[in-house]
Amino acid sequence: MIEEATSGIKTDVSPDARWYVIHTYSGYESKVKANIEKIIENRGMQNLIHQVAVPVQDATEIKNGKKKIVSRKIFPSYVLLNMVMNDDTWYVVRNTRGVTSFVGPGSKPVPLSEQEVASMGIELPKATIDMEIGDSVQVNNGPFQDSMGTIKEINQNKKTVVVTLSIFGRETPLEMDFTQVTRI
Questions:
Q1: String of DSSP letters for 87-142
Q2: Are residues 170 and 115 in the same domain?
Q3: Residue 58 sits in a domain of what CATH number?
Q4: What is the DSSP letter of 180?
């Protein structure tokens, strides 16, 4: 079973947040995690850097005939971050003591795919929506802003809803993000 050493979890995670991997000096994973969490708190970056994780796994070790359970890092010298990548967050993380680099070609960090994150045992936060099928909604932005429609489908995994709008006198289904509609 994988345990995740995390903190600084924010309940309203930005949809732009992705998981990134940073490389650290050997044995500095916990120190880097603590340093980044301290920076997040001091600079008020909770809305940009949501989670700092050092995935560990419990292992049974037998020494001198005694059984002992120890926590081992699954990815030694690596720390996982759930964050919104921009110039500020890149600079803060990259210049944290103990961090050598982001994982990716050159200086360009590459986010992990959802499949990679799931295979590491990290649960992705589920977006919740306070709407149901049949609810009347108003579109907040985009080309159909201020249009009224009805929810026909809700897809929790993709974080989308299918809304039928009356366009040129015809009912037309459109797929939209949770954030694009508001219940009336």
A1: HHHHHHHHTSTTEEEESSSTT---PPPHHHHHHTTPPPPPP--S--TT-EEEE-SS
A2: no
A3: 3.30.70.940
A4: G
pLDDT < 50 regions, the chain: 1-11
Helix axes 87-94, 29-43, angle to 10 degrees: 140
| Domain identity same for 45 and 15 | yes
* Shared domain check, 83 and 18: yes
* CA–CA distance, 152 with 137 (Å, rounded to integer): 11
The number of distinct structural domains making up the chain is: 2
Q: Is residue 78 domain-shared with residue 146, that is, in the same domain?
A: no
Q: Which long-range contacts (CB under 8 A, 24 or more apart) does 114-120 make?
A: 116/19, 117/19, 120/2, 120/55, 120/74, 120/80
Taking every pair of C-alpha atoms in the chain, what is the biggest distance, in angstroms?
80
Check residue 128 and give its pLDDT: 65
pLDDT at 57: 82
